[in-house]
Amino acid sequence: MTALLSIRDLTVIYRRDGSEVAALKDISLDIAVGERLAVIGESGSGKSTLALAIARLLPASARIDGSIDWFLRPPPTLGAKAPPSVLPDISPSRGEIALSSPPSPISKVAGEDPTAKLPISLLEGEMSGRTEGGLMERKAQKSTAKPDHTPLGGRDIGFVFQDPSASLDPVMTVGKQIAEVAHTHLGLNWPQAYAKAKTLIERVRLPDPDAALRAFPHQLSGGQKQRVAIAAAIAAGPKLLIADEATSALDTIVQAEIVALIRQLVAEDGMTLLFISHDIALAAALAERIAVFRHGGLVEIGAARQIVSAPRHAYTRSLLDAHLGLDAEPLSRQAGPSA
Amino acid sequence: MSSPLLSVSGLTKRYRRGGKTIAAVDNVSFHIEPGETLALAGPSGSGKSTIARLVLRLVQPDAGDIQFKGEDFLALGGATLRARRARLQMVFQDPLAAFNPRATVARVLDDPLRIHGIASRSERPRRIAALLERVGLSPDLAPRAIHEISGGQRQRVAIARAIATKPSLIVLDEAVSALDVSVRGQILRLLLDLQREERIAYLFISHDLGVVRAIAHRLVILDAGTIAESGDARTVIDAPQSAIGKALVVAAPKLDRTGP
Ligand SMILES: Nc1ncnc2c1ncn2[C@@H]1O[C@H](COP(=O)(O)OP(=O)(O)OP(=O)(O)O)[C@@H](O)[C@H]1O
Ligand SMILES: Nc1ncnc2c1ncn2[C@@H]1O[C@H](COP(=O)(O)OP(=O)(O)O)[C@@H](O)[C@H]1O
Ligand SMILES: [Mg+2]
Ligand SMILES: [Mg+2]
C-alpha cells in the first residue's frame, strides 16, 4: 500500500485551567492512498483530536508530539493563477480554535521537497476555503516552508463535521459558500465558481439545484445542510476527505443516504476517506479498514471484516456486543447485569 | 382488562410556516397500558417530538382528545393539572439542555421533591441520595455541577429526576440517542428494571429501530404526521408493511459478525 500520510508517535495534550488531558497517546498509523479508513471509539476517545491534528486545526493551547508525514505528489499545474494556500480546506466548527500560535515542527511534507517541514497550523473557525482568518498563519508558514509549492495545500483536505449548521455561514447563500471554495482554491473567477457550485450541488443530489444555490442554510433540512457541507468540502478536489461524525445527527434513513453519497463521491474522485464514527456497524459498512480508539490510545487496527468477525481485543468485542441490531434478542429477555 | 393509562385519539397539531400550514401531527390515535413501553419511530420531521410535547401538554393540540388515568387530560387546569403532572414525567436527548449546567445534581433532584411537596426540607437530602442509588449512581455525586459529570451520568440524573415523583408514565424523546453504546445498554437496562419494579409505562421515541426492538412492547411508525403502521414491536420490525417502515428497516446499520 502507498501511504498518503504516516502518523508516528502522535501525542496530543490539551491544557485547560491548569490541568492537562492527554487526548491522544503515542498513536502510529498510516493512511493509504485511496482507502476508506474508519476510526471508531466512544465519546472522548480522541477521534476528533486525531482529525484535527491531521487537518492541523488543533487549538493553540494543545501540546503536540510526534509526526504526521504526508506523501503527496506536487500538484502538476499550480500556476501563477492559483492562489498559494497552505491551509487545509476545512470547516472548523470549534470556537476555541485560536488564530495563531508558535509553530511546532510536526508536519513534514514529502514529495517535491521531502524535507519540507510544516508547523501544525491553526485556523480561525471559518467556512471551507474562507481562509482570511489564516493569513497570519500563512505568513508564518511561508518562512518555514515553500507554501507556493506545498502539497498540503488548501485543497488537499476536505472536512465535514457532525453539525452542518456550525460549519455553514447562516447569512450566506449556499451557492456563494460553495463557489467561494472553488474561487479561493481553484483560482476560478466568480461565474466559473458558481457554475462549479451548481455542478457540486447536483453531485450531492440536492433537489432543485437552482433554488438550492440561492437558499440560505436555515431553509434546508439537516440532511440537506450536510449535503451542502459535503459539496463545500469536496469543491477544491481534496485528496483526503475527513467526515467526523458527519451522519450522527441525522435520522437513520438520511444517514444511509449520506453514507451512500460519501461512498460514491470518494470513489468517483479517487479521494481517501477518514470516516469517524461511534457506530461500529456503520463503520464496517463503509470502510475497508477500521481503527479502534479508546482513552486516546489505538486499541487495534485491521480490515473491517477482521475487526467485526475476529476482533483481537476484548474492548472491540464489547463494542460489537453492545450493538443493537434488528436481529438482537430484546433486552428484557436477555439475562444480564442490571445497570 | 383495566382501562389504558394513556389514550390519545384524533390528535392533530398544525403549524404555519412560510405562509403554508403543515400538519405536524395529523389525526393520530394510540394508547398505552400501565407498565407498557410504546415506541414512536419515524424519520426526522414525522411528528414524534410534537406528539411528546402534546402528551406533556407543553403545546396545545388543534384537535383531539387525551385521556390520562381515565381523566380528560386536556380539560385539567390549576392544582389538579399540577398534581397529575407529577405522574407524567419526561427525559429528553440532551440532559445538558434540560438543566442549568451550573446547577448541582442535588439541586436538579431537589426541585421535583420540593415542587410536588414529596418530601420535607430535612428529609430531602436522604431522598436525593436514595434516588441516586436507585439509578446506579453514587450519592457522592450530589454536590457536583451538571456539567462536571459524564453524559451517561447526566442521563441517569435525568431519569432519577423523572422517577422522583413516582410517575406512571415517562415520555422519553431520543433519551439514549446521544449515548455511547455501552452506556446506552446500561441505561436501557435501568429503564427495564424500573419498569419491572414500579410498573412505569414509557412512551419511547427513537428513530433507531435496533433500540426500539430491544426495549419496546409495541411500536407506532409515523410518517409525515400520520401513523403508517403499528403493532407488536418485533412483528412490525421483522416484517414491516408500510413503505416508511421498510425504509427504516433497510437503513438500519447491520452488523455481520460472521467471518469471511
Ligand atoms: N414550533 C414549530 N413551528 C413550526 N413548525 C414546527 C414546530 N415544531 C415542529 N414543527 C414541524 O412539525 C413537523 C414535526 O416535527 P417534530 O419535531 O415533531 O419531528 P420529529 O419526528 O420529532 O423529528 P426528529 O426526528 O428530527 O426529532 C416538522 O415538519 C417540523 O418542522
Ligand atoms: N479543545 C479542548 N480542550 C480541552 N480538552 C479537550 C478539547 N477537545 C477535546 N478535549 C478532550 O480530549 C479528549 C478527546 O476528545 P475528542 O478528540 O473530542 O474525542 P472524541 O471525538 O473521540 O469524542 C476528551 O477527554 C476531551 O474532553
Ligand atoms: Mg468527536
Ligand atoms: Mg424530535
Automatic annotation (TrEMBL), chain B:
CDD domains, per database record: ABC_NikE_OppD_transporters
Gene3D superfamilies in the record: P-loop containing nucleotide triphosphate hydrolases (3.40.50.300)
UniProt domain ABC transporter: residue ranges: 6-249
GO biological process: transmembrane transport
Entries under Pfam families matching the protein: ABC_tran (PF00005)
UniProt keyword terms in alphabetical order: ATP-binding, Nucleotide-binding, Transport
SMART domains attached to this UniProt entry: AAA
UniProt-recorded Gene Ontology molecular function terms: ATP binding; ATP hydrolysis activity
Family: Belongs to the ABC transporter superfamily.
Name of the molecule in the record: Peptide ABC transporter ATP-binding protein
The organism of origin for this protein: Mesorhizobium helmanticense
